[in-house]
Amino acid sequence: MNIGVLIPLIIFLVAIFAIGFIASKQMSGSTGFLQEYFLGGRELGGFVLAMTMVATYGSASSFLGGPGTAYTVGFGWALLAMTQVVTGYFVLLVLGKKFAILSRRYDAVTMIDFLKARYNSPAVAILSAAAIIIFLFSAMTAQWVGGGRLIESLTGLSYTSALFIFAVSVLVYVTIGGFRAVALTDAVQGAIMVIGTLILLIGVIIAGGGVPAIMQDLLNENPNLVTPFGADRSLTPAYVSSFWILVGVGVVGLPQMVVRTMSYKSSRAMHRALAIGTIVTGFIMLNMHLIGVFARPVMPGIDVGDKVIPLVALEVLPPWLAGIVLAAPMAAIMSTVDSLLLLVSSAIVKDVYLSYVKPQATEKQVKTISFGVTGVLGIIVFLLALQPPDLLIFLNLFAFGGLEAAFIWPIVLGLYWKYGNKTGALASMVTGIGSYIAIHFYNQAYGDLLGVHTVTVPVVLSLIAYIIGSLATRREPFRF
Q: Minimal CA–CA distance to 107: which of 354, 344, 348?
């Protein structure tokens, strides 16, 4: 156990708790508890909006799993990761003003509120809540695993003990502070990510003897490591092109990103977030994946990809600086976990409990049930994370793909196509989820269908299903 490494991390956690406590004191605003707890009162400025989108999207897979895969695959994976640069820009560009305006008009607190108002269908709302709960449990489990492994690597504690420390750390500030705490801590965590990735990249390059020496070492080991096709030449043009659907276009359908387009306070804030978010995402993604590739000659033989970043940081940096740098992946993990946790909690409390179980609940009852559900969800995910997979990036990407296949067309066409209706939305969601799960297991057994990423075919099929379902039961055009 390295005390020099732990002290900066402990300071970081104390600061996060303090932000959560401060945010909890601001939760009695005029917008009411639900608006405050799940949307932060719709008061996010441009910088906070950009950083909370970056921090939510930049997760354990970006800071641990992604660099770990780049360590194994080479520059091909780093190139693939750069397709994520435009993610925040694309989400705000497509949803942006229109989604924010309509969500305020419908008094929507969650994405499901919007879908229920747009399609006037309890079935759409219930299916949406089920999809969010099921797939986000996979995503949250991946983040919990990442946090546990990071603390395990730093402290020498058992994985179970490390996972318990991480779970308690997150649950405290999310449960008491709600969305405002999540957004404010995301802004701090995003800044830490930027600084941490730059320091670690410089440290790895120095330890490797400079970029030319590192490149020569990679070429000597396997020339494919420095090609766009990967060490085993598995990154085909078809796969790389289709991967952008998962991490670029399809991100418009991720509930954790969608809800952030409901929370900003003005058009100016959104425009600032467009620029800041794009620059910060590009900087972080490039640095982290270059670190993964450059780490291979510096520390060869790491067998678990998710441990590459913590092990390399401890190897190439002084302990106190390693502690500061490793606050970056910790920040990335915590900033994603808190968002997903709050999102699932809102689906259960707002979209199930208040809509169908107890619509007349008092604000005190709502507050109690919100705190309780958030805490119970954290405990369940902790139990699920006790048996982790080797590379959590693929668990995280599985959840991403399922959510995108379910929601991308009901959201996008629901905003821009007046003839879209509940039959089309239901058909799209059922087709997207069903085909995604089926193709996922097919690919596991036989290899990628058509040589493209798993999410590609379900996104196309769900689009066809939406159009056919809507036109087959065409009614009066929706009035926005």
A: 354
Continuous segment of H or E residues that includes residue 9: helix 3-25
Q: What is the biggest distance separating any 2 CA atoms in the chain, rounded to whole angstroms?
A: 69
Q: Is residue 346 helix, strand or coil?
A: helix
DSSP state of 109: S
DSSP 236-303: -HHHHHHHHHHHTGGGGG-HHHHGGGGSBS-HHHHHHHHHHHHHHHHHHHHHHHHHHHHHHHHSTT--
Please check whether residue 289 is in contact with residue 70, taking contact to mean a CB–CB distance below 8 angstroms. Answer: yes
β-pair partners for 264: 44
**Integer Cα distance of 337 and 80 in angstroms:** 24
Q: What is the mean pLDDT of residues 267-289?
A: 86
- Token couple for 249: 């276009």
pLDDT at position 468 is: 95
Q: Average the pLDDT over 437-461 and give the result.
A: 87
Separation between Cα atoms, residue 408 and residue 462, nearest integer Å: 9
The residue written with tokens 């520059």 in the block is: 75
Query: Tokens at residue 313, please?
Result: 């940081």
pLDDT bin (cut points 50, 70, 90) of residue 34 is low
- The C-alpha atoms of residue 94 and residue 415 are separated, in whole angstroms, by 9
Single out the residue of 109, 71, 338 nearest to residue 208, CA to CA. 71
DSSP 362: -
Q: From CA 252, how far away is CA 409, in angstroms rounded?
A: 9
How far is the C-alpha of 394 from the C-alpha of 398, rounded, in Å?
Answer: 6
Most confident among 81-90, 215-224, 469-478 (mean pLDDT): 215-224
Q: What is the pTM of this model?
A: 0.80
The token pair that represents 134 in the structure block: 């099921």
Comparing 176-180, 225-229, 269-273, 400-404, the range with the smallest average pLDDT is: 176-180
Residue range 83-105: mean pLDDT, rounded: 81
Between the CA of residue 219 and those of 72, 286, 294, what are the distances in Å? 14, 20, 12
Within a 10 A sphere around the Cβ of 242, how many other Cβ atoms?
A: 20
Q: For residues 132 and 411, is the Cβ–Cβ distance under 8 A? A: no
Q: Where are the alpha helices (DSSP H) in 58-121?
A: 60, 66-73, 75-81, 87-94, 96-105, 111-119
Flag the least confident range among 22-31, 57-66, 245-254, 460-469. 22-31
Sign of CA dihedral 68, 69, 73, 79: negative
Compute the distance between CA of residue 391 and CA of residue 280 in angstroms, rounded to an integer: 25
**b/e code 4-39 from CB counts within 10 Å (16+ = b):** ebbebbeebbeebbebbeebbebbeeeeebbbbbbb
